[in-house]
Design goal:
The complex is a heterodimer of chains A (93) and B (380). Chain A is α+β, with helices and mostly antiparallel strands. Helix content of chain A is 23%, strand content 33%. Classes of the chains: A alpha+beta (93), B alpha/beta (380).
């Protein structure tokens, strides 16, 4: 993503269903809040919707909340399938 | 940026384009509805339609919460914000949505109404704490992606006894809308809209999981592939749909496995279930009244429900004459079919909601697609 897009989204101009991946850089367990890095932008988001988030995890951010963790292993698998132009459909179900 | 850049690779896109061209049977058409506005934007921004063979077409669905909000609800919000006691907190994309008689919350704000753009429900709660003498109304809108954040806010308001905070709830449900499209006369009887399969929502599914789609994949015999929002995700998902259609399958497959599971985010689902219940019906722009397609606040939280605290009558707003938003939202017309598109209706001066929202089909056509009309016609 270009940095302008990241900044626009982080500033809250765009909302609805667009969520962005960001890395957790700090966690405040008392307030269920994480600081995330979105390119150059740092922002505090709520962890009220997710369990077991650790520093360095990637999470999907939407309207100030982490929605889900992102699985690096699954991302690699999807990229590998794309690289084969998804040769093996039975593996994808 | 990780999980973004690698899913925009040009080289892989070319491989996928070749794979799709090879897989697509030239003797048939593939009409794939992308439900979400986020997919519509990816398709236009990255020129994905032009990487598809002529017989693979994307049909744009109603998955843009701002676009499907009926004008009456905007008029309700405008009425609320006219009250001097009220601070209306809204997500940014609602500001410019036209209500009846060419009004909007932005125009109202310019006349002095206290309308504030917030990034998150936590900002709305903060504003309520900071302004105990005022009524703070949060205009809640969105599909399942956004609803859990509103649930967390209502639970916090109850916990804190935040008496000056209420929510004007407009949350809607994706599966109900997809089912409504499949049952619409345009799809079932007239055949003016043919849909062969669906690209399923990315972030809605991260919450609800892939399971809710299993019913209508089976019932209506249409394949669904849950697709990420990046361009390679859209292409890979189109390929998976083409393969299913070639093989006569109609299953729910998940391309977006890095985020979506079959069960979804159970914690978020539970929070939503604690706070909200189904409305018997709700009006959608373009789809009309759709049964059990939206949520309302449970009676336990009635003290925090703006529809309980204020007079919020059922209003029937009227669209601007000539605006094709309703048929565009059903997939029955394209933005370029609308007489207002690009003439009197532009993002600077929107007439209809599909031009306002960051996810609207008209906004996508205007921003990225308005120069490619000729090839589209050639392909049709």
């Amino acid at each position: 993503m270009d940095s302008r897009g990241a900044a626009v989204r982080a500033s809250g101009v765009l909302t609805v269903c667009l969520a962005v991946p960001a890395q957790v850089v700090a966690i405040d367990a008392a307030t269920e809040t994480a600081t995330i890095a979105l390119g150059e932008v740092k922002k505090d988001v709520s962890l009220a919707l997710v369990d077991d988030v650790a520093i360095d995890d990637f999470v999907l951010i939407h309207v100030g909340f982490a929605l889900n963790k992102i699985s690096p292993a699954e991302a690699e698998r999807t990229l590998a399938l794309m690289n084969e132009a998804g040769i093996a459909p039975e593996e994808m179900a | 940026m990780r999980f973004v850049d690698e899913f925009r690779s040009r080289d892989v896109a070319q491989k996928l384009a070749a794979g799709i061209a090879e897989a697509a049977d030239t003797d048939r058409d593939y009409r794939l509805m992308e439900f979400c506005g986020g997919h519509t934007h990816a398709i236009f921004r990255y020129g994905i339609q032009d990487l598809m063979p002529a017989n693979v077409r994307f049909i744009h669905g109603p998955g843009c919460p701002v676009c499907v909000l009926p004008i009456g609800r905007i008029d309700n919000a405008i009425k609320l914000a006219r009250d001097d006691e009220v601070i209306l907190c809204i997500y940014g994309d609602l500001l410019r949505v036209p209500g009846s008689r060419q009004t909007s919350l932005l125009k109202l704000k310019a006349t002095g109404a206290d309308v504030r753009m917030v990034y998150s429900t936590t900002d709305a709660l903060r504003i309520a704490r900071e302004n105990p003498g005022r009524q703070v109304v949060f205009f809640a809108i969105g599909f399942e992606t956004t609803t859990p954040a509103t649930a967390v806010a209502l639970l916090a308001a109850e916990r804190e006894g935040l008496e000056n905070f209420t929510v004007f709830c407009n949350h809607v449900l994706t599966p109900a809308a997809i089912q409504n499209i499949l049952q619409s006369p345009e799809v079932r009887d007239i055949g003016s809209v043919s849909i062969d399969g669906f690209l399923g929502p990315s972030h809605v599914s991260s919450i609800i999981g892939s399971k809710p789609y299993e019913f209508f994949a089976e019932e209506y015999q249409k394949p669904v592939v849950i697709a990420g929002f990046e361009p390679l995700d859209v292409m890979q998902s189109a390929l998976m749909l083409i393969r299913q259609l070639n093989e006569g399958r109609h299953e729910v497959e998940n391309e977006y496995t890095r985020v979506v599971t079959r069960e979804g985010n159970v914690k978020a689902q539970q929070l939503v279930a604690d706070v909200f219940e189904l409305r018997r019906e709700f009006e959608w722009r373009g789809l009309g009244f759709v049964p059990y397609s939206a949520l309302r606040i449970k009676s336990r939280f009635a003290a925090f429900d703006a529809e309980e605290r204020f007079d919020v009558p059922a209003l029937r707003g009227s669209d601007v004459k000539g605006c094709e938003c309703p048929s565009i939202l059903r997939g029955a017309a394209r933005p370029t079919d609308c007489k207002l598109f690009g003439t009197v209706c532009t993002p600077d001066n929107p007439m209809g909601s599909c031009m306002v929202s960051s996810e609207g089909a008209c906004a996508a056509y205007w921003s990225y697609g308005r120069f490619r009309k000729a090839p589209e016609e050639a392909a049709a």
